[in-house]
Amino acid sequence: MTIASRPLGGSLDSLPPAFSAEAVAGLVQAHWGLTGALSPLTSERDLNHHLRGAQGQFVVKIANLAEGHAVQRMQNRALRHIAARDATLPVPRVVPTLDGTDDVVLTDGHLMRVLSWLEGTPLHAAPQSAAQSVALAEMLARLTRALQGFDDPAAGHVLQWDIKNAGQLIEILSDIHDAEARLLCVGALERFEANVAPVLPDLRWQVVHSDLNPHNVLMGADPDRVAGILDFGDMVRTPLVCDLAVAAAYRIDRADPLRSLVDFAAAYHRVNPLTAGELRVYFDLVAARMVTTIAIASWRAARYPDNAAYILRNFPSARAGLSALASLDRDAVAAALDRACPVRAAEQE
Fold first, then answer.
1. Rounded Cα–Cα distance for residues 346 and 246 (Å)
2. d(Cα 26, Cα 35) in Å, to the nearest integer?
């Protein structure tokens, strides 16, 4: 296996499973006793359907074979852990099979699961506001706290979307055809290697959601109220602050990047206080997430042009956000974070 052929690992370098809707309907009826109308849902790696029937609404998931069963089962256990720790968090619930198990291994080896359906308006389609950003940060902080104490052997799997691995992306930047975006990515990765990579082992680590992007959040009738958190497919054990940085990367106001960057961290900090070390790397981690979005999307879109529109959906905002961050003075960012996120002595590191 060469870097040129498979730099992102098996699941990102493979197509989603191929099952007809009729086949999926037969499987979900046989193993879960559920019937109804199926409609496909977009997914980067898996095959997902929305099932609507007399018994309710559900998400039917058939996992990418390259990912392995352990990661999928970790997600099931994590969802049960979250529900036990904070039952009011709006996350999917695992729907057991007729036999009482959490999943079914199909004859060809694919793992099939069913989750409850959550109602709401996708964040990317909802009106944006500063109050909404506060609500998102606070909800993420609650989710991170609910995942405290959860661990699983599969949580250490290698996931290129995990921004602790951002340094490896230098190998695929040639697929970014926008020259200015490519230069921004090079600069951000140089700062990551200098300021973040050396201190990652010293930060707090735990299992986190790791992908609070606008397609994974549902808003209620009030667009400032979070109604659902979806897609735990990027869950991984990583420095806790990486989870915050991922979410913040999608909330940067290009007209006022400093305020939006700091306010998001401050809202999170009020619910789940950050350490001084975490605050020092936050800015560079947000930039690293934008690089990750740009680089992986460019690499995959070039190889899977039929799915390019979906793969590239977050590219424009990531490029604009990275440009906005590059305009900020690092000392000014650090000073603003210190003022907005006071750290108690017990949380210095």
1. 26
2. 9
Spatial CA neighbour of 92 closest among 221, 191, 220, 232: 232
Q: What is the pLDDT of residues 216-230, one digit of tens each?
A: 999 999 999 999 999
The DSSP output letter for 347 is: G
What's the confidence (pLDDT) of residue 256? 96
- Where does residue 86 rank: exposed (0-12), middle (13-18), buried (19+ CB within 10 A)? middle
What is the reported pLDDT for 308? 85
Strand partners, 39: 50
Q: Do 58 and 34 touch, CB atoms closer than 8 A?
A: yes
* pTM exceeds cut of 0.70: yes
Helix, strand, coil shares, percent, the chain, to 5: 50, 15, 35
Amino acid making up residue 314:
N
Largest alpha-carbon pair distance within the chain?
A: 60
Q: How far apart are CA 38 and CA 62, in angstroms?
A: 14
Question: Which 8-state DSSP code applies to residue 94?
Answer: B
